[in-house]
Amino acid sequence: MPEQKPEERRQNFAEVNLGLNFHLATQEAMRCLECANPKCIDGCPVGVKVKDFIALVLTGDYLGAAAKIREDNILPAVTGRVCPQEDQCEGTCIMNKKFGAVGIGYLERFVADYERESGQIGLPPIAPPTGKKVAIVGSGPAGLSAAGDLVQRGHQVTVFEALHEVGGVLVYGIPEFRLPKEIVRQEVENMKRMGVEFQTNVVVGKTVTVDELFGEEGYHAVLVATGAGLPQFLGIPGEDLCGVYSANEFLTRVNLMKAYKFPEYDEPIYNCRGKNVAVVGGGNTAMDAIRSALRLGAKNAYVIYRRSVAEMPARAEEVKHAREEGVQFLLLNNPIGFLGDEKGWLRAVQCIKMELGPADESGRRRPVPVQGSEYVLPLDVAIIAVGTSSNPLVQSTTPDLKTRKGGYIEADPETLKTSKMGVFGAGDIVTGAATVILAMGAGRKAATAIDEYLRTGVW
Amino acid sequence: MGIEGFSIAEARFLAPDVKLFRVVAPRVARKQQPGQFVIIRIHEHGERIPLTIADSNPTEGTITIIVQGIGKTTKLLNRLNAGDFILDVVGPLGRPSDVRLFGTVVVISGGVGTAIAYPIAKALQRAGNHVITILGARTKNLLILENEARAVSDEVFVITDDGSYGEKGLVTGKLDALIAGGKKIDLVLAIGPIPMMRAVAEKTRPCGIKTIVSLNPIMVDGTGMCGGCRVQVAGRSQFACVDGPEFDAHEVDFDGLAKRNAMYRESERQALEQFVSEPESGPELIRHRCKLEDVAPR
Ligand SMILES: Cc1cc2nc3c(=O)[nH]c(=O)nc-3n(C[C@H](O)[C@H](O)[C@H](O)COP(=O)(O)OP(=O)(O)OC[C@H]3O[C@@H](n4cnc5c(N)ncnc54)[C@H](O)[C@@H]3O)c2cc1C
Ligand code: FES
Predict the structure, then answer these.
(1) Which ligand is closest to the CA of A256, given by its number?
(2) End of a domain among B93, B128, B160?
(3) A385 lines ligand 1 (CB under 6 A)
């Protein structure tokens, strides 16, 4: 994959990967062995017909290839960029072990970009109106994919979003250099053209409750797709110092509010130029945050992670890109306290070294502290990216909606029906923080079940 | 809503740099309870800022907000007039105030804090409390909502720093006098600048009078998603936008709050300076949007 050079890209927010050209795409597609029993499809959480779309790439029918992916995945330009392919389709690709997997993600992205740039997005036909109204709460990948499917089946669909922009994590979390916002905007535009209505600035549970959506607002079904957006902190001393951020806050300021363009945009962010910045955590969020800090001019950018690189949940490509850009990995290190000055500004972090003990319930080896290994690292900004938990505003105002531990919504794994009649749940708010593709797959599953419920009236 | 923004039905100055807006936001108006706030953004490049809802009229579908022009966004907002639009208004956010019969309640407010205190005082009086209001301002022409406060209070004391109106002194002095006079006080509500709220908390702590403050930390989303609004209350981190904004004054770490609120002071100064030097750049963005909407089909 052609990409911006590390020393260049660490200065800008433009996309790192530049995309395949026709020649490279053909070359990559030719590597597909067209297995009789393709394992790549099994590896895909939504069963994209990988072999078929690659065959279409080889014939030069890129629009056909994109349409083939869209049969199972309505956001190919997004997932081509953000899916953890190495654990999914590319992980199960027969070529993977010996020669390196076919670049399925790159090809997916290539055909989706071709389709978008050609301006010939084949919008699917819309069924005649059913007269049924569906409210979707949350405009992340789960909500968007459900909206697309439901509107096609003739239902009237409204998506309610708490923020002022549509897209969920795709717009507030994942940075421009990994997923250009224009792509998300285009997908949302397509949905509007198909008839989906978007209402931003509506916090369901506050502005309007689920019961009111059924009551005075006249909806026949509600899908809750509010994500797992609540930041977790470490609970160690000094976490309220100025300069300590949750990854959500840091990324929201940068991506949604465009703080990297301050003062052209009004939302400020700590001026990272020439400063020491660290992120705590090892997932995609951590990589996104620290690479954003680099682009904001950080002098030293550290990832502090308490396990080793093998346990890092981030996509392999993000870790590789971060390293190339000069991010320093302090693996098997754990912060135990933040130290500040008299004005309340972060000045340093106190860490302790860790070693890997026996495996824990997640199957990963549990890190244990090495006695006496504490040290102090000078630091101006710390970004906490150790996970998120469920958004509670819908649950707390919908008493008959059953939740499980952690406040996540209980939903039937097949139909995504919740304990409350007419209410379905999909995405991170059901599963806990997961991936774009899983949220999207759940949104589609929910759409099928909602459609059936609306047609038959059977709960 | 959303696309065209939220139209301003009425706008008028209450004091120099302090402006009242009635904004059309029917869903918010229907749900608003005392103590709650909205987050607004005025143009495409704008920041999100929280503003308390001072009043609402569910029949008309309007909410009232009162804005003191301090930074770039609030100064720009204060240039808008009836007929203009606010791009984004979301709410009502935060927990409503705990309104019930306490007995005698002293409501202390400083500056635009009165805009926040007024709807709570109104609700407390309606709940049957004896409401004593202490209104503070630096000087006479900065005093706002005096008549409104009188209408919902059983007793009102006006205090100005310079003695230009009412009594000269500090609101805490008046509170002292009430306590010393043997008044049985069941609840104190203090809303205003951090030093004032802290001072009130220190007065009531020794007497064991339950005291509530409404906090104003920096916010982004207002839905619990960023944690930027966290404050230490009783040694625990709380998100003011969803757990507050009201907290037990005796448990709040005011020092930490003041420090966190200073975090963007340099950026705020820079933005304001730039705005003051080219005051047309901000309104330009707003006008640009209005023009686009005039031609766009609805
Ligand atoms: C920084 C970051 C990087 C990531 N990188 C990757 C990656 O590379 N690959 C990958 O596969 N996954 C990645 N993920 C995970 C992935 O983004 C999520 O799993 C996915 O977005 C979940 O989708 P969702 O639709 O369930 O929820 P979300 O995308 O979280 O969307 C939920 C939406 O609901 C809104 N909402 C919440 N409450 C309410 C309410 N009460 N009323 C109205 N609206 C509400 C929220 O504002 C939000 O817009 C990343 C996550 C983060 C945070
Ligand atoms: S403002 Fe973001 S969590 Fe409160």
Answers:
(1) 1
(2) B93
(3) no
A152: pLDDT strictly greater than 70: yes
H or E element, residue A26: helix A22-30
**Options 3.40.1350.10, 3.50.50.60, 3.40.50.1580, 3.10.410.10; CATH of A133-229+390-456:** 3.50.50.60
Confidence of residue A267 (pLDDT cuts 50, 70, 90): confident
Query: What is the rounded CA–CA span in Å between residue A47 and residue A42?
Result: 6
Give residue for tokens 């920096």: B218
B205 and B59 assigned to the same domain: no
pLDDT for the residue B41:
93
* Same-domain status, B139 and B110: yes
Q: What rounded mean pLDDT belongs to chain B?
A: 88
- Distance (angstroms) between ligand 1 centre and the Cα of A221 equals 22
Q: What is the pLDDT of residue B284?
A: 58
Contact between B91 and A207 using a beta-carbon 8 Å cutoff? yes
Q: Find the largest Cα–Cα distance for chain A.
A: 70
What secondary structure, in 3-state letters, does A117-153 show? HHCCCCCCCCCCCCCCEEEEECCCHHHHHHHHHHHHC
Cis peptide before B92 (omega within 30 of 0): yes
The 10s digit of each residue's pLDDT in A394-432 is 999 999 999 999 999 999 999 999 999 999 999 999 999
pLDDT at B293 over 80: no
With respect to residue B278, please indicate whether it lies within any of the assigned structural domains. Answer: no
Nearest ligand to the CA atom of A85: 1
B140 and B246, same domain (yes or no): yes
Which class would CATH give A6-118? Answer: mainly alpha
Given a cut of 70, whether residue A197 has pLDDT beyond it is yes
Residue A448 CB-density burial (10 A; 0-12 exposed, 13-18 middle, 19+ buried): middle
Q: Concatenated DSSP letters for A387-429?
A: -EE---HHHHT-TTS-B-GGGPBP--TTT-B-SSTTEEE-THH
Residue A137 has pLDDT above 80, yes or no: yes
Contact status, residue A73 vs residue A439, Cβ threshold 8 Å: no
Question: Of B36, B49, B51, B226, which is best to mutate to test ligand 2, by the most ligand atoms within 8 angstroms of its C-beta?
Answer: B226
- Mean pLDDT (whole number) for A105-126: 90
Round to whole Å and give the CA distance between B121 and B141.
22
Question: Would you say residue B232 lies in a domain?
Answer: yes
pLDDT of residue A167 exceeding 70: yes
pLDDT of A169 over the 80 cut: yes
Which of 3.40.630.10, 2.70.70.10, 3.40.50.1110, 3.50.50.60 is the CATH number of A232-387?
A: 3.50.50.60
Are B164 and B20 in the same domain?
no
Same domain, B13 and B39: yes
Q: Do A268 and B267 touch (CB under 8 A)?
A: yes
Strands of B104-110's sheet, edge to edge? Answer: B167-168, B155-160, B130-137, B104-110, B187-191, B211-214, B246-248
Of the candidates A116, A55, A56, the one whose C-alpha atom is nearest the C-alpha of residue A80 is A116
8 A C-beta contact, residue B192 and residue B134 = no
Full-model pTM: 0.93
